[in-house]
Design brief:
heterodimer; A: about 250 residues; alpha/beta; Rossmann fold; four-stranded antiparallel β-sheet; about 35% helix; B: about 675 residues; MetI-like fold; 4 domains; three-stranded antiparallel β-sheet; 7 strands; about 75% helix; about 5% strand; binds adenosine-5'-triphosphate; binds magnesium ion
């Protein structure tokens, strides 16, 4: 279980990105994080694996205080939390297999890894994960020769290499065509349902939230303004989260 | 209503106060009016020019006029006008009107160029009165010593006309003189002879080290190439770790890294400000004369230059992959290996190739101080008055450098395209890779031998090296030394200014001829295009230091000769950059002006010049920056300026004073570097 308690984040330039966020995620949930651009979604997700240092507040995961961990401990925690990014964040000039293998770095010895030496099991695991995202035929091509959707699938395979218990997905489909959005989210759904991996996923389109999430929270100006089932977001809630002028639009 | 009045009042008082305080303190009024940059610039310019006039009159009696019994400099007039202009500018700014900036430039230019003209000792008359010397040297330059003819019992250089009649006679089967390849060619390119066996020879063939064996005597140009290649190799390897220490985004990830970052950056900037040739002077005290000293000097300077470029490249990587690797739990070294290095490989390679080009050019002149390479050869030929041999060396240098330039830019383009390679690689590719590796190793061993690299020498420094280090810490800051150093430094900077101006004035008309998009359809103009381009390329391939000898012969030793040599290289580089800038212009305006029925001159005036003014200015500032660095060494060949002072101090083992000179060079070059970067950022 992941518990976020009264989390604050103030950036060095004074921006208050998180303003006392508290919520809980049970194991096996698919939690959607919604909210306008700038509401603090990315900041929240990055605080959970400490890519960003929260200013105050606590994040407790299975009785371990993530916010208090340091040095080696934080790397031990990070390697159990997979992350998928909006811009994919692949090393474009490296091959697909190298990108996928790099997801294993938290587990392997430093020295061999610096010379790109990975164990047979890790290579086998990489092949399996590429298989899972249907990219086995692209194993040796360079990452930048793939399409956006394919690159995001490599991103998922890389996260899977960590054998994560949680996956943080920061707008994983925002840079993709709407049609591709479903294909990516279906992989996440499959991991969630079949693999039992908890998924925290920030999303822009409500339809996607309705379709995939088991629960949702909404942020506005760094505060949680809604917490509940996706189906509970009615028109009134919607206006509150997104502002008066907002209109609901449909995604294919 | 009341508020409004109040504002008006402060506005009014500003129009009085701003000009008034400007009268006392130039630039302050502008600063008061919230035009900080303008204020600072004006302050600096006014103060520097005032000091310059003062100094010029006291040292050289520049622009002397006598008013009654009192002697003074008429340059005080433009200074006075500039001061007044400051006041006017402050006033006009306060009432929101445009001020005539051109006037300020005019006053400043009068002061600068009058002083520069006197200080660099320009003697136009000599260009004419000694034209015959120029002609004789031109004749020798055109007929380099590549062939010799046996005539009247002795061998003489066989120029083009001699070669021509020789080949004609040969073809027609008539009897003629004996012509052979000259000894000089052997000196430059190498010849069969005896060499001293090296360690490597002893390993591979079993002869004892130090024994005389038959072999290929390396020519000076081959030695030069080896120096450039080795220095590039070493400096690249060493610059990579350094660049990580100088990259802010990397160092901020570890404890105390920011301090390391600042320290390394500062050291790199200082090392870079000292020219390779000056490093050569220091290094020979350490390891002694020879190619090895040249390699070290080039390596040190390149580490600093590459280190800076590499670290900037690291700072500009996409942070996304770094974030991703951190998120997987990877540690610092894994982040660098998997997220940083793959991203910077192409730009590192391309900078290395660029640096190889620069190193090859430096290798041609490092011999002037360090011994070894073609520079040393040139120095010797000049000393003996062997201008035909000197000419042959210049031609050899031109060929090599043009080749290197072409190869380096071709490879750079290919690398920066960064096309994904076809994978996976077959058997043939593995074989090819192995062949490359073997050739590379052989070349490495050969270059190692040729440059006489001896790592033991590093640990057995020369007798005065310790003293040099000590004296450099306690440099001589007494007044007479400072006066001399300041005088020479000002000369150097003004030399660079004159050379840039002269080079640019000459380059502008030629650059239009060398722009492909302006050449007409006729064969004639195509020929003009190729000839101008080749002229730029040939002139550019030879370093200013190598040209000095020509001008020393023509106009005599001194700053004027150095300035002319710098002007030649400036002309070639500016011409090339300008013509490329013209080639890159937007074609729309040209069409529009042509459509109005304008002629060619009008088209240039109205459609092209407005588009190229800014890039031109930027290149000029860039060139001035380069020229200041070059001007610091031009004195080693008799071109005047600070280089002469430095080599004198070094030659007489006065390291205290030499240290002062080096410190001064570092300060001035770093300042100019900073100023030129700021100016280019502001205007371009
Ligand atoms: N590194 C930073 N420094 C300063 N302010 C930042 C930084 N990163 C984000 N912010 C600010 O913090 C606030 C929250 O940003 P965040 O990226 O978390 O929002 P978001 O909900 O993910 O928005 P988006 O949908 O655009 O990705 C915004 O106002 C943003 O401008
Ligand atoms: Mg975001």
């Amino acid at each position: 279980m992941l518990k976020v308690e009264n989390l604050f984040k103030t950036y060095p330039n004074g921006t208050q990105a998180l303003n006392g966020v508290s919520f809980q995620v049970d194991d096996g949930e698919f939690l959607a994080v919604i909210g306008l651009s700038g509401s603090g979604k990315s900041t929240l997700l990055r605080c959970i694996n400490r890519l960003i240092e929260p200013t105050s507040g606590k994040i407790i995961w299975n009785d371990v205080d993530i916010t208090a961990a340091s040095g080696k401990d934080i790397r031990m925690i990070r390697r159990q939390i997979g992350m998928v990014f909006q811009q994919f964040n692949l090393v474009k000039r490296s091959s697909v297999i190298t990108n996928v293998l790099s997801g294993r770095l938290g587990y392997v010895e430093t020295l061999p890894s610096l010379f790109h030496i990975f164990s047979r099991e890790d290579r086998e695991r990489a092949r399996k994960n590429l298989n899972m995202v249907d990219l086995e035929d692209k194993t040796y091509v360079r990452a930048d020769s793939l399409s956006g959707g394919q690159q995001q699938r490599v991103g998922i395979a890389r996260a899977l290499m960590q054998e994560p218990k949680i996956i943080l997905a920061d707008e994983p489909v925002a840079s993709l065509d709407p049609v591709l959005a479903h294909s990516i989210l279906k992989y996440l759904e499959q991991l969630n349902k079949e693999g039992g991996i908890t998924v925290l996923c920030s999303l822009h389109f409500l339809d996607l939230v309705h379709r995939y999430a088991t629960r949702a929270i909404a942020l506005k100006d760094g505060k949680v303004v809604f917490e509940g089932l996706p189906s509970e977001i009615d028109n009134k809630q919607f206006k509150e989260i997104y502002g008066k002028e907002a209109e609901r639009i449909e995604v294919v | 209503m009341k508020l409004n009045l109040n504002q008006n009042k402060t506005g009014k008082s500003l129009t009085i106060i701003a000009p008034l305080i400007t009268l006392l303190f130039p630039g302050s009024g502008q600063m008061l009016l919230k035009r900080t940059w303008r204020g600072i610039t004006l302050f600096i310019i006014t103060i520097v020019l005032t000091c310059l006039v003062f100094w010029g009159y006291n040292t050289y009696k520049i622009a002397e006029v006598n008013i009654g019994k009192l002697g003074t400099s008429w340059l005080w007039l433009p200074i006075f006008l500039l001061w007044l202009w400051n006041v006017l500018d402050a006033y006009l700014l306060s009432v929101h009107k445009k001020s005539p900036v051109v006037l300020a430039f005019l006053f400043a230019a009068v002061v600068l160029y009058t002083t520069a003209w006197m200080v660099t000792d320009v003697k136009l008359d000599r260009l004419v009165t000694r034209l015959n010397d120029a002609k004789s040297i031109a004749a020798r330059l055109i007929n380099p010593d590549f062939f010799q003819v046996h005539k009247d019992g002795e061998y003489r250089t066989c120029g083009w006309d001699c070669l021509w009649s020789y080949s004609k006679a040969k073809i027609q089967g008539e009897p003629t003189y004996v012509v052979r390849i000259s000894e000089n060619v052997g000196d430059i390119f190498g010849r069969k002879g005896t060499i001293t066996a090296t360690q490597w020879d002893s390993w591979f063939t079993g002869v004892r080290k130090g024994e005389r064996i038959e072999g290929f005597e390396t020519g000076k140009i081959v030695e030069t190439i080896a120096i450039g290649v080795m220095a590039t190799l070493f400096s690249t390897i060493l610059a990579i770790p350094v660049s990580f220490l100088a990259a802010r985004n990397i160092m901020s990830r570890i404890h105390g890294g920011t301090i390391v970052y600042y320290v390394v950056r500062t050291i790199l900037n200082i090392v870079r400000a000292v020219d390779t040739v000056i490093w050569g002077l220091l290094i020979i005290v350490w390891v002694g004369l020879g190619s090895f000293a040249g390699v070290i000097a080039l390596t040190i300077h390149s580490i600093a230059a590459l280190g800076k470029l590499f670290s900037e490249e690291i700072e500009h990587i996409d942070p996304g992959p770094v974030e991703a690797i951190v998120a997987t739990g990877g540690n610092f070294f894994q982040v660098i290996r998997y997220a940083v290095i793959p991203q910077v490989i192409p730009s590192f390679l391309s900078y290395t190739l660029l640096r190889w080009d620069i190193n090859m050019r430096s290798a041609t002149v490092i011999g002037f101080v360090a011994g070894g390479g073609i520079g040393f050869f040139v120095l010797e030929t000049i000393r003996q008055g062997g201008y035909e041999q000197y000419a042959a060396a210049l031609w050899a240098v031109a060929v090599v450098i043009i080749l290197v330039d072409t190869i380096s830019s071709k490879w750079r383009n290919r690398i920066l395209e960064d096309k994904p390679k076809a994978l996976p690689n077959g058997k043939w590719q593995t074989i090819r890779t192995w062949i490359y590796i073997i050739i590379g190793c052989a070349a490495f061993i050969y270059c190692w031998n040729v440059t006489k690299i001896n790592l033991q020498n590093l640990f057995a420094p020369g007798p005065t090296f310790g003293r040099l280090l000590r004296d450099f810490v306690s440099i001589d800051l007494t007044k007479p030394v400072l006066n001399i150093v300041a005088k020479q430094m000002i000369t150097t900077v003004l030399q660079a200014l004159m050379a840039t101006t002269l080079g640019a004035l000459l380059a502008i008309p030629f650059s239009f001829l060398a722009a492909k998009n302006l050449t007409g359809k006729s064969h004639f103009s195509a020929w003009i295009f190729y000839i101008t381009r080749s002229m730029f390329n040939i002139l550019r391939s030879i370093e200013a230091l190598l040209y000095v000898a020509i001008f020393v012969y023509w106009v005599g030793i001194g700053p004027f000769a150095g300035m002319m040599a710098l002007a030649i290289t400036s002309f070639a580089l500016i011409g090339k950059l300008f013509s490329e800038a013209i080639e890159n212009i937007d074609f729309g305006p040209i069409e529009a002006v042509n459509a109005t029925g304008a002629n060619k001159m009008q088209m240039i005036m109205y459609a092209i010049i407005p588009q190229v003014v800014l890039p031109f200015l930027s290149f000029l500032i860039y060139q001035w920056d380069i020229n200041i660095r070059m001007a610091t060494i031009i004195g080693f060949a008799g071109g005047g300026g600070i280089g002469l002072t430095l080599s004198t101090y070094f030659g007489s083992l006065q390291y205290h004073k030499a240290g002062t000179v080096v410190a001064m060079i570092v300060i001035v070059v770093a300042l100019m570097d900073f100023a030129s970067a700021k100016i280019r950022e502001k205007f371009v």
